[in-house]
Design brief:
The termini are far apart. The protein contains seven helices and seven strands; from the N terminus they run ααααβαβαβββαββ. Strands 1-6-7-3-4-5-2 form a seven-stranded mixed sheet, with helices on both faces. Helices cover 32% and strands 16% of the residues. β4 and β5 form a beta hairpin. The chain is an alpha+beta fold. It is rod-shaped.
């Protein structure tokens, strides 16, 4: 009796399994189940291996025929040929070692300059210019008396020559609007070792030429250059 019941149970169970299998095949569930349980490999980006850099062969570089025919450039400093003239240059004065003239010394130099001016031809225009630190160090700008410039000097920028007592000529740049000497004055001041307190007498011997007399602040009255 028990064996008969077990056989009936197994038979019914087998029928249900076959029925479920048939339905799954109809719904294509087998393939769906397999796809869920079987992981797909993720795609990986291929990395190209880096090749070692090869040194560049200059001979392999293509150059224009016009450039290739030119000699190679050299960026070394070119030495100055012997015998060629060099531009004039001046050392910058040490501004820390400035020497300032006293008031009495300045006044004495101006007095001697006035005595010298009175001995010159009075028909030739002249003026006295006491030297300050700005005239002989640092900026090297020499402002001239405005009234004298407007009366006797050209109304445009020009070159004015300074002739010392040894008849040596120095050219300077005269700026009409600023009524003063710029380029070239620095060289004149350094060459003649002008210092604060010196008094200069400018005599206009020609329309664009001054005769310059130097009265030294640190020299006795009988010495004027």
């Amino acid at each position: 009796m028990v064996v008969a019941k077990k056989s009936a149970y197994e038979e019914n169970r087998q029928k249900r399994l076959e029925e479920n299998k048939r339905r799954m095949e109809e719904l294509n569930l087998n393939k769906l189940a397999n796809s869920l349980h079987t992981p797909k490999p993720s795609p990986m980006k291929k990395v190209k291996p880096k090749l070692p850099k090869q040194p560049l062969d200059p001979s392999s570089v293509r150059r224009s025929s016009r450039v290739a025919d030119l000699p190679p450039k050299s960026y070394k400093e070119v030495a100055v040929l012997e015998g060629m003239g060099k531009p004039r240059s001046y050392q910058r004065r040490d501004l820390l070692n400035r020497v300032y003239a006293g008031d009495e010394e300045r006044q004495y130099a101006v007095q001697r300059a006035e005595d010298l001016q009175s001995s010159l031809d009075q028909d030739v225009p002249s003026f006295i210019k006491p030297m300050l630190q700005s005239h002989v160090t640092g900026g090297f700008w020499l402002g001239l008396p405005s009234h004298f410039c407007k009366t006797h000097l050209p109304s445009r920028d020009t070159t004015i020559s300074l002739v010392d007592e040894n008849d040596e000529v120095s050219d300077t740049k005269y700026l009409a609007l600023k009524t003063g000497l710029s380029g070239g004055w620095r060289g004149f001041a350094i060459d003649h070792e002008l210092v604060d307190g010196d008094a200069l007498v400018f005599q206009l011997t020609e329309p664009t030429s001054f005769k310059v007399y130097i009265i030294r602040v640190n020299e006795p009255a009988e010495s004027s250059n």
